[in-house]
Design a protein that fits this description.
Layout (H helix, E strand, L loop, with lengths): L2 E6 L2 E6 L1 H9 L4 E5 L4 E2 L3 H10 L2 E4 L10 E6 L5 E5 L7 H10 L4 E5 L1
Antiparallel strand pairs: 1-2, 3-4, 3-8, 5-6, 6-7
Protein name: Flowering-promoting factor 1-like protein 2
Family: Belongs to the FPF1 family.
GO biological process, one term: regulation of flower development
Length: 113
Amino acid sequence: MSGVWVFRNGVVRLVENPTSGNAAAASGKRKALLHTLSGEVVTSYASLERKLAALGWERYYADNNGCGGGLLQYHKRTSVDLISLPKDFAHFGSVHMYDIVVKNRDAFRVIDA
């Protein structure tokens, strides 16, 4: 996972290095999210949402006045954790995958696709 930290409008975020991403894609080292309980690779938000719901995660519908306008967010009533994902699955990257893995260690794993 490589990239550059960007500070803009009071928010710090990691922008993945496009050159290393292209090199990873060319060498076949793209990442994928594996649901270890079923052995399935997550290929859409619909399948991811079903798997998260089975683990107790609920969709969080924030008001669009905040920063939630371009995000899908999930929360658990039993914790303070929040998973934030881009609305477009095409922008679902390794940073988001690792966020899910850290919050669900026994249910997901990041693999080379």
